[in-house]
Amino acid sequence: MNHDDAQWHAVPEHNAHDQTLPEAIGCCRSRMFTLDTGLNYIETHYTPNRHLAIFSQMPQQVPRMVLTVALSGHSRFQNNHGNPIDFKSGYSTITTFNASEGSRLYQDRQAVTQLRFSMTQAWLERYFGVGAFAAGFALNAVQVVSQHPSAATTLLAARGLLQNPLPAGAQALFRQGQAMSIVATELGHLLAAAPAQSPRLSAHEKRLAEGARDILSAEFKNPPSVAELSKRVGTNPFKLKQLFHIHFNTTPYALLLDIRMAHAHRLLVTREYPVAMVAEAVGYPYAGNFSAAFAKYFGFPPKQLSRRI
Length: 309
Prior knowledge:
Blueprint: E1 8-10, E2 16-20, E3 26-36, E4 39-48, E5 52-58, E6 64-72, E7 74-79, E8 85-88, E9 91-97, E10 100-106, E11 112-120, H1 121-128, E12 143-149, H2 152-163, H3 168-193, H4 203-218, H5 226-233, H6 237-248, H7 252-268, H8 275-281, H9 287-298, H10 302-308
Antiparallel strand pairs: 1-2, 2-3, 3-4, 4-11, 5-10, 6-9, 6-11, 7-8, 7-10, 9-12
InterPro entries: Homeodomain-like_sf (IPR009057), HTH_AraC (IPR018060), HTH_AraC-typ_CS (IPR018062), PchR_regulatory_protein (IPR053142)
Keywords: DNA-binding, Transcription, Transcription regulation
Protein name: AraC family transcriptional regulator
């Protein structure tokens, strides 16, 4: 399903918008509130009756940071050009992006409740200071800045946001106050951890890492070994693994798997290719091995994805 097909419908409160997917898909609803210039708050309640993929494409725009507080269930954002992002119950995930393209994946009959706080870089600098979290906006791609268990005070404030029993005239102020408390608490983890951040890479080191990534992206069907890859970009295997850990927070093998699975996902949802052909297209000579890898990666087998989404 394309995200643009799910229209936003206004609800009575002047600063809220409601997005409901077709009933045939299940009970899937989101509400968005504009709390401040540069700060949006979104409540998401999804219980699809089938495995669901919502394709999303956001063109280049002002840099944003998104804090997702997952209260129940599990979902995944499969970025077409990077690592997947899992949103797990009980965890707060902080991501940044300038533009994004990918799929939001939900499992059938699993209730998912998430609160998202979308903040522009300008809003962050207004409240946290000029240059705050600048490192998180260094790349144009979607990246995970932090993922950690949600604070107890965050969970308490989240319950207040969902219940909000106050009279209509006081709800907007209460909602903004609870949201600001959650943002301050969860982003405070980043400020506290700032001295222990990974070492910054030089421009040359970034080029080495990104060059290796580009080779894997282009040659994922028949990829070079780590030794061959490191030789081609002009370094050694140990250094290349270190660069991948610092720059991409992953390993060359894990990134290769991400690339293969993202490409397989794009082929399968077209319903034009059998599983065996997709397996061969992404570098698996045996369809059984591909199916096992796909099921472990996404949580369901490839035949189910092509049949039900």
